[in-house]
Specification:
The structure holds two protein chains of two kinds. Chain A is mainly α. Chain A has one domain. Helices cover about 75% and strands about 0% of the residues of chain A. In chain A, helix 2 runs antiparallel to helix 3 and helix 3 runs parallel beside helix 7. The longest helix of chain A has about 35 residues. Chain B starts with a strand and ends in a 6-residue tail after the last helix. Chain B folds into two domains: about 220 residues, Rossmann fold (3-Layer(aba) Sandwich); about 60 residues, Alpha-Beta Plaits (2-Layer Sandwich), CATH 3.30.70. In chain B, a hairpin with a 4-residue loop joins strand 11 and strand 12. Chain B is an alpha/beta fold. Classes of the chains: A mainly alpha, B alpha/beta. Chains A and B meet through helix 2 and helix 5 of A and helix 2, helix 3, helix 4 and helix 6 of B.
Chain lengths: ~280, ~300
């Protein structure tokens, strides 16, 4: 039997007091999403990278005998390609989480509109969603690095730990630009563009599978502009324990600036789409 | 609760709301009646703090949406025209995550969900995916979600559009209970029966302006006669026959499929029509409705 609506109010709904407190209100939403999607995520997050390492790093890499000097100091091809794959994996997660899911929340299910009807603002929504992707990436890359460690790839514990933490920044440098892109387009047809002209060339030509020096001097300069190269090179420096502080600082600044500028623009774009 | 003075909203060259004055008192069910494109939804979006007004003054709970949007939204319930439910989550989780957006403690949200599922008669669907619900159930879930913060004002944009008659009556019953519990209801509709059933007070909107304001009965009394005689002749005959019968009523409206003769005594009008040797294919005498008010004020019907 239906009861009548009782307006007595034990605790009062409130406006969030700050950016973080607002984003924390969305923790339960993202946990619920995680509980719903974890089975599919296990395959893409853990099994797929393992297959790549096996096929490209171990089986194909077994044919490659190169002077460590041509492999940024890596003693085996597997040790060279492993950090590249970790960074590329971080990038892939950002693309997966920030393309179709964002379009769904904006256009198909319009969940963003329900969020904005509550006391939450676009800045809270973006922070919560970005934080979710970063945490998901740290979990995935953590497992990935453990698997690689089992292949005997690494000699340095602290370097690998730093490389793991670094993936939070690598994924950020893709999460906010891809989010900005997804919020700026009208329809999902445009995703073909960003996958074919963005993600795939970045994966292939950013030093993931071979040193960008092999590209020749002109293409090498272009590759250096790619955010993935900065992520790959820095991750590799850390796992190989051959850190050049100056270059490393440059990589970090590039990734931080890219992430921060696109973060700010993404909040503005989301507000523009939801509030009119 | 809500007051608007000279409220305007323009999108580029298009003027959606052209200066309206509205005042909504606590506990009232206040309706915005008008056809699609009248500016009802634009007005609602401004009140819900998701559309900055272009001009005029707007206050909700005495606060300015431009300054205190989040504070206002904490006390509003919003039931949008298009469902914005997460179709991949179940019914319970949709309510749960939403309650958390309002900063309510987990235990309290859970208690409220039990109560609200009961209220909208979805208790046995708690674990069902939203995708598997009927249109009426989705709407009831949306209403439940909009009540999770126990709002002082519940805003409903076209609450029963697209639902079958039975589902509509269930919604009306629930909204009526909310009204009795003292919740201020603000609703838009292009259904005159919905406005008559639910609203204590309403404004009729057309092309961004308010063309009339009052109670449903008061509007009918002021802008129409007690009864309406409807005459249906052959296709295409209505225009030419209008001249022969217009002196029998206080006012006449010519629609493509019938003539409407406004009079306090509809039966006598029909008799008089027959007395002139005219034999309509069908006749009907009914009480005036808000549809007639709208037709009189704008010369157009509400639902095309």
């Amino acid at each position: 039997m239906a009861t009548d609506y009782a307006p007595a109010t034990p605790s009062t709904p409130t406006a969030p007091s700050g950016l973080v407190s607002g984003a924390l209100r969305m923790v339960d939403y993202w946990l619920t999403v995680a509980a719903r999607t974890w089975k599919g995520a296990v395959v893409t997050t853990f099994v797929t990278p393992f297959l790549y390492v096996l096929a490209l790093g171990v089986l194909l890499g077994g044919f490659i005998e190169a002077d460590p000097a041509t492999l940024d100091g890596a003693t085996t091809y597997l040790a060279f390609v492993a950090p590249g794959m970790v960074a590329a994996h971080s990038m892939n997660i950002a693309f997966a989480e920030m393309t179709y899911p964002v379009m769904g929340m904006l256009k198909w299910q319009r969940i963003y509109y329900s969020m904005i009807a509550s006391p939450l603002a676009p800045s809270h929504i973006v922070l919560a969603q970005v934080a979710w992707v970063v945490l998901r990436t740290l979990l995935a890359c953590g497992v990935f690095l453990l698997v690689l460690a089992a292949f005997g790839v690494f000699d340095t514990f602290w370097g690998v730990l730093a490389a793991w933490v670094l993936q939070g920044l690598v994924v950020l440098a893709f999460t906010t630009p891809v989010l900005l892109f997804s919020l700026s387009i009208r329809g999902e047809e445009s995703f073909a563009l960003i996958f074919r002209l963005g993600m795939i060339p970045l994966t292939l030509f950013s030093g993931t599978f071979f040193p960008i020096g092999n590209l020749g001097s002109v293409l090498e300069k272009i590759a250096m502009a790619s955010p993935l190269w900065h992520g790959v090179d820095l991750t590799r420096m850390l796992t190989l324990g051959r850190l050049d502080w100056g270059v490393a600082a440059l990589h970090v600044v590039y990734l931080v600036v890219l992430a921060a500028v696109c973060w700010w623009l993404a909040i503005r774009k989301l507000a523009e789409r939801l509030v009119s | 609760m809500i007051s608007a003075r000279g409220l305007r909203k323009t999108f580029g060259d298009f003027e959606a709301v052209r200066g309206i004055d509205v005042s909504v008192r606590p506990g009232v069910a206040f309706g915005f009646l008008g056809p699609n494109g009248a500016g009802k939804s634009s007005t609602m979006r401004m009140i819900c703090c998701v559309s900055p007004p272009t001009g005029g003054e707007l206050r909700v709970f005495g606060m300015d949406p431009a300054q205190d949007g989040p504070k206002i939204k904490a006390r509003l319930g919003v039931c949008p025209q298009e469902d914005t439910l997460d179709v991949e989550l179940n019914v319970y989780d949709n309510l749960y995550v939403y309650g958390r957006y309002f900063g309510l403690p987990r235990a309290e949200v859970k208690g409220r969900i039990e109560e609200l599922l009961d209220f909208v008669q979805l208790t046995d669907k708690a674990k069902a995916k939203v995708d598997d619900l009927s249109g009426g159930m989705k709407r009831r879930l949306t209403i439940a979600r909009s009540l999770i913060n126990r709002p002082e004002i519940l805003v409903l944009d076209e609450p029963t559009t697209g639902l079958d008659p039975q589902a509509r009556h269930v919604i009306w019953d629930r909204l009526f209970r909310l009204k009795q519990a003292g919740v201020t209801l603000l609703l838009t509709t292009h259904y005159m029966d919905e406005a008559e059933q639910l609203c204590d007070e309403l404004v009729v909107m057309d092309q961004g302006r308010i063309v009339a304001h009052g109670t449903p009965l008061g509007l009918i009394r002021d802008h129409s006669t007690r009864e309406v005689a409807e005459l249906r002749f052959g296709v295409g005959e209505h225009e030419s026959l209008a001249a022969k019968v217009e002196d029998l009523a206080e006012r006449i409206e010519v629609l493509p499929d019938r003539l409407l003769l406004y009079s306090d005594d509809g039966e006598s009008v029909i008799e008089a029509v027959h007395g002139r040797g005219l034999t309509p294919a069908a006749t009907l005498v009914r009480r005036s409705s808000l549809e007639d008010v709208f037709l009189h004020l704008t010369g157009r019907t509400l639902v095309d």
